[in-house]
Design brief:
Elements lengths: L11 H20 L7 H5 L1 H10 L3 H12 L3 H10 L9
Length: 91
């Protein structure tokens, strides 16, 4: 019975090349335009949250608030409630 050799680990240069390729792709993805996003929203993330609330999308506003701030779900809900997001609208 022959003993199978495990494949050799990738070389350091190979790993670095793959990392650079992934970083490059991430930059490309980050540069792609997002649907329905204005320059004002890009400059001020809080304005984007306010716009979502104003358009009756409190759940979307809550998700965006969490992305921006890293807040927990309950913290984001509280913040959106304080901004009037759950007063009369539902997502």
């Amino acid at each position: 019975m022959a003993i199978q050799k495990s494949p050799a680990p990738p070389s350091r240069s190979s790993l670095l090349r793959r990392i650079r390729a992934l970083e490059s792709r991430l930059e490309e993805i980050g540069d792609e335009p997002t649907a329905r996003r204005s320059a004002r929203e890009d400059d001020d993330p809080a304005a984007e949250v306010q716009e979502l609330i104003a358009s009756g999308r409190p759940m979307s506003a809550m998700r965006r608030y969490r992305e921006i701030t890293g807040a927990s779900e309950s913290e984001a809900r509280d913040a959106i409630e304080q901004l009037g997001g759950f007063a009369s609208h539902a997502d």
